[in-house]
Amino acid sequence: MNAQAKIHLDRVVKKYPGSKVPAVEELTLDIPEGEILVLVGPSGCGKSTTLRLINRMIEPSGGRILLDGEDVTKANPDKLRRRIGYVIQQVGLFPHHTIADNIATIPKMLKWDKKRITERVDYLLDTVGLPPEQYRDRYPRELSGGQAQRVGVARALGADPDIMLMDEPFGAIDPITRERLQNEFLRLQEEMHKTIVFVTHDIDEAIKMGDRIAILGERSTIRQYDTPERILAYPVDDFVNDFIGNGSTIKGLNFLQVSSLRLSDYPALRESESAAAGLNLLQEKGRDWLVVLDGEGRPVRWASQEQLGQAGTGDMRGVGVEVGDHLKDENTLFEALELMVQSAAGRTCVVDDAGQFQGIVDMGHLNKAIRTAQSEARRHYEELEANA
Ligand SMILES: Nc1ncnc2c1ncn2[C@@H]1O[C@H](COP(=O)(O)OP(=O)(O)OP(=O)(O)O)[C@@H](O)[C@H]1O
């Protein structure tokens, strides 16, 4: 692992009183600093228990937990929890306290002065997209589910902890608000660089939110621990494969960019040229579709051999079908696929910032990129095995 471990779980065990099997069995896990690690796995596999062991909401039955290299297994749990932000699905705001008081919970415990607390509350409300003048004096019952969840995040950030634990934080929210909160949170994390452990049972949320993902099986055993791209390119066994479900290869296209492709030379001509010249070019290159460019070199239409043949000796203005949206370097191959399946030509054009034609992406490009990602991931695991 490149990033330094902020949190290290060392053979951590949790056995609830009265239960025969442990909820967490000898879990050893490094949680890298400044990243989002997602714990994902089927219901009841022990995700929440693992999360709650980290801030000692639950006492471990065995093993050690290290924060910044320091063993906190026996530290004062209250003190520990002030260092660690905690967000849960049901938010858990105090109903009789205003939003401002809820956010100020930890700063108050830490006896910050009033001015500092007020400034911090307003700053945090702003940060999570709730204008302070409208929200600070409201009560939790006066908020929508999505707003309450934002307040939950603001409260967890209260005393600026460097670690956040998030237990299905966006689980109970409608899909559109959920996606918005996920995106906002990812943007926030780009500035905050907190160490975050994020629990979900939804693999798509894990893929979206995680810098790394730990896929857990029963008793919190780690079935695969890696970046989302590598897990999608190379699920290590049937359990992981089944858990990811259909379409893992296509989901993996989200992690590949157009800039990584070598664009092939593709026949393209300005529309002021004759259709006969276009047809000649296609036949010479052995291609089916010509990219017709406007006077500025921007792709405007696809023209097939048949369409060019029908146009005869005239120029190519109006010949062919609209090219639709274009790709740029920063687009993902998932976006490329989306455009390709909509395109009459089954391929899509790439343009530069000025909109000028650079080349095309077709299924061959995607196929090659996927196969490269898969073989790199396979090689990575073979090396790991060889060094074990
Ligand atoms: N307080 C408790 N007492 C006894 N057993 C518990 C307790 N809390 C959880 N368990 C058991 O421990 C196991 C792991 O539960 P946990 O809530 O950690 O799973 P989870 O992966 O977070 O599940 P979910 O996705 O359904 O929330 C389960 O078998 C559960 O029944």
From TrEMBL:
Keywords: ATP-binding, Nucleotide-binding, Repeat, Transport
Short name of any one Pfam family annotated for the protein: CBS
GO cellular component, one term: membrane
Main enzyme class: translocase
PANTHER family listed in its UniProt record: OSMOPROTECTANT IMPORT ATP-BINDING PROTEIN OSMV (PTHR43117:SF4)
Gene3D superfamilies referenced in this protein's UniProt entry, alphabetically: CBS-domain (3.10.580.10), P-loop containing nucleotide triphosphate hydrolases (3.40.50.300)
SUPFAM superfamilies for the chain: CBS-domain pair, P-loop containing nucleoside triphosphate hydrolases
EC number of the protein: 7.6.2.9
Natural source organism: Nocardioides bruguierae
Span of domain ABC transporter: 7-244
The keyword ATP-binding is annotated on this UniProt entry: yes
Alphabetized GO MF terms: ABC-type quaternary ammonium compound transporting activity; ATP binding; ATP hydrolysis activity
UniProt name for this protein: ABC-type quaternary amine transporter
Superkingdom assignment: Bacteria
UniProt-listed GO biological process terms: glycine betaine transport
Family statement drawn from the similarity comment of this UniProt entry: Belongs to the ABC transporter superfamily.
